[in-house]
Design a protein that fits this description.
With 383 residues, this protein is α+β, with helices and mostly antiparallel strands. It is 66% helix and 9% strand. It holds the Pfam family HisKA_3.
């Protein structure tokens, strides 16, 4: 647990066992004090405010550490009266001395209201009667008051934490220098390059590698036929030649970082139909979509089907069915075979890589493969 935004999601019992309520209260308390001081300072030095704001802004940056936030780096300000960074920080100080001061003061009042309620002596006055009936009535009223105080105190904790979180988010938004945005942009760019590298690796494994494996199997079969029946080897050699050309074409496309050509030109239905034509097991394709999904989703779905059809040879299947539908905001692709079942991602069937590919797009992969079959692979991708 490193930040207040994570702590707010905890259930009450877990939250109250941490120091986050105290840290949030310390943040709004110090915020109320510094907001009042800032208000006085703005009134007295309104003309030189942007030039004299640096100490106050520095305090506000470092107060964020109370909530587990790294203090934003100090920006490089070229001129206090012309730099938009300085005016943005000054705008935060104005808010801090007005609206945020009221927010912090209200949060402090909410935090201490249960204490004032207890200090009001409600229980003592209710239990202070002379006869037994009054005493028991006072006890009941006192217990109810204490329960009410506990409930109010828990609610007050969340109110204080939410007020602190709102104040802190506004501070981070206005006090973070442009360099932070540049750093975040660079980080996203690095992540995108890394994601693209992994995508190419998966495409090589799930696409071109499977074609080369089919080519190798065809050549082995042709070699076995050459000695006994050279005529029977000729169709196998022609098939191998076609597979080699297809593998080279797909490698060329992958190097360029694009989809398989048929997928790019004709869409998922045509691309899956081509996979079915090359499959080693008779495959029925039922892909009905109202429109083409995003290209990244099409690519993920295509390679899911390619890997699933390549894995069918391990299952002794006689028939495979591939279906794809749009269900609400998702593309659902299902590959079913009538093989022996027992598929396990831990056995190196390529399913782990498929799961990674699907997860990278925010989708889910489900596998049902009981012993004896059938095996059903269902992939859901956000449209």
């Amino acid at each position: 647990m490193t930040r207040l935004r994570d702590a707010v999601r905890l259930p009450p019992r877990a939250l109250l066992s941490t120091l986050w309520p105290v840290r949030a209260l310390a943040y709004v308390l110090t915020g109320a004090v510094s907001g009042a001081v800032t208000l006085v300072w703005i009134v007295l030095t309104s003309v030189g405010a942007p030039a004299l704001a640096a100490p106050f802004i520095s305090v506000e940056r470092h107060r964020l550490a109370l909530l587990g936030c790294a203090p934003p780096a100090a920006p490089r300000v070229r001129h206090r009266y012309t730099d938009p960074v300085a005016w943005r920080a000054f705008a935060y100080l104005v808010l801090h001395a007005t609206a945020l001061l009221l927010l912090d003061a209200a949060a402090v009042a909410v935090a201490f209201w249960p204490v004032l309620l207890i200090g009001g002596g409600t229980f003592t006055r209710a239990a202070g009667g002379g006869d037994a009936v009054d005493v028991w009535a006072g006890v009941v009223v006192g217990v109810l008051v204490l329960l009410a105080v506990v409930v109010v105190a828990v609610l007050a904790v969340y109110v204080v934490m939410l007020a602190a979180l709102a104040h802190a988010e506004l501070a981070r938004l206005l006090l973070a220098p442009p360099d932070d945005a540049v750093a975040r942009s660079r980080s996203r760019l690095v992540d995108a390059f890394e994601s693209e590298r992994r995508r190419i690796e998966r495409d090589l494994h799930d696409g071109a590698q499977q074609r080369l494996l089919e080519l190798g199997l065809t050549l082995v079969a042709a070699e076995l036929e050459l000695d006994d029946d050279p005529a029977a080897a000729k169709p196998l050699l022609r098939k191998a030649s076609g597979q080699a050309k297809a593998a080279l074409a797909e490698l060329r496309e992958l190097v360029r970082g694009i989809h398989p050509r048929v997928l790019t030109d004709l869409g998922l239905a045509a691309a899956v139909a081509e996979l079915a034509d090359r499959a080693s097991v008779p495959t029925t394709v039922d892909v009905v979509l109202p429109a083409r999904p995003p290209s990244t989703v099409e690519s993920a779905a295509y390679f899911v089907v390619a890997e699933a059809l390549a894995n069918v040879r391990h299952a002794a299947a006689e028939r495979v069915t591939v279906t794809a539908r749009r269900l609400g905001p998702a593309l659902v692709v299902r590959v079913r075979d009538d093989g022996t079942g027992g598929a396990d991602p831990a056995k190196g069937t390529g399913l782990t890589g498929l799961a990674d590919r699907v997860a990278a797009h925010g989708g889910t992969l489900r596998l049902s493969s009981p012993a004896g079959g059938p095996t059903v692979l269902t992939v859901t991708l956000p449209w």
